[in-house]
Fold Ommochrome-binding protein-like.
Amino acid sequence: MKIPIIFVFVCVSIVTCGKIKEKTTVKPAEKGSTVALVCEGVHVHGKLHKRHVIMNGINRPYQLAMYSHGHKVFFSYNVGEDTEDTFGIGYVKINDTMPTEIKDVKNGFAVAVHEHTAYFGSPHGIYADNLTKSEGDIKHIVKGFDIWDMFFHENLYFISFPKQRLHKYHIHHKNVTLQEQIHEKIYQFVIDGDDDIFITTRDGLFMITSGTDYRIPFEGPKVFRAIEVNHKGVAHFCAKSAIYVAHKKNHTLIEIARVKNIFGITFDKSDNIVYSNPHEIVKLLPHDCKN
Ligand SMILES: *[C@@H]1O[C@H](CO)[C@@H](O)[C@H](O)[C@H]1NC(C)=O
Ligand SMILES: *[C@@H]1O[C@H](CO)[C@@H](O)[C@H](O)[C@H]1NC(C)=O
Ligand SMILES: *[C@@H]1O[C@H](CO)[C@@H](O)[C@H](O)[C@H]1NC(C)=O
Ligand SMILES: *[C@@H]1O[C@H](CO)[C@@H](O)[C@H](O)[C@H]1NC(C)=O
């Protein structure tokens, strides 16, 4: 199935499946004090954040999507033996200790949430779940495609497998159109707050400025585990060991946080980063290092 990216995940997780920790020594604020405080956490945009573990003990959670109203994080994960890739989609509610698997979606791999609807992509197509209903209300809305990745921007975009072409599911017309303007095989696709498009191919990351069709190559990492746009419209790019944002003028990526072995990313309603690694889902919260 989704061999190329999974293969990379497995290799890396064997090597660096460790703790993500960074120690920062803060100079005592008071003159005369001799005890240095040691803060643990991750710097995001140069500011210290602490790791709040939402859930641990999950087997390789990949794509993340947050439903803030319901305090839920959806994700796809490995539900089979370690040696086989059998995926499933689950969610964890804030303060829960166990994930709830969405059993109606077999082998689900892709997840997106928009307003009160969650979308689940699988080899059997796309399912939509009305999250305002307490029991869940899952409808099979797209058939005939194996879904690799999804992205919501006014409508639901998805990348099919194995052709890796971009399609759009029109949420009002309820039909699917191949997006022929994206002619290449892609791994990821997002549209940011300026309506600029980012795609990744085996050659790396490219930006297509709104209203143009010229591909601008970006310097820096070539392989990305996840790309998501936050509520302010800023695209975030996760490579193997760091999170980046785009510098659109000089076509480079700017590292905003070092996080080892990142698998997936999403944002809570205040745009705090929520990410996953091979066995955890973690939220990064600003932390002033007092007490
Ligand atoms: C989660 O637990 C904390 C501490 O027990 C509590 O303050 C908070 O309201 C809980 N959140 C939800 C959504 O239940
Ligand atoms: C979800 O369910 C609610 C309550 O039944 C309904 O009002 C709403 O229209 C539904 N949303 C969608 C997208 O079907
Ligand atoms: C999708 O549905 C709309 C409204 O029925 C229609 O105008 C449009 O041509 C359809 N597109 C495709 C690709 O079928
Ligand atoms: C691009 O701009 C950023 C921010 O001003 C800067 O840090 C970086 O060095 C620049 N890169 C190049 C290649 O000019």
Q: What stands out?
A: Residues 236 and 245 are 5 Å apart (CA to CA).
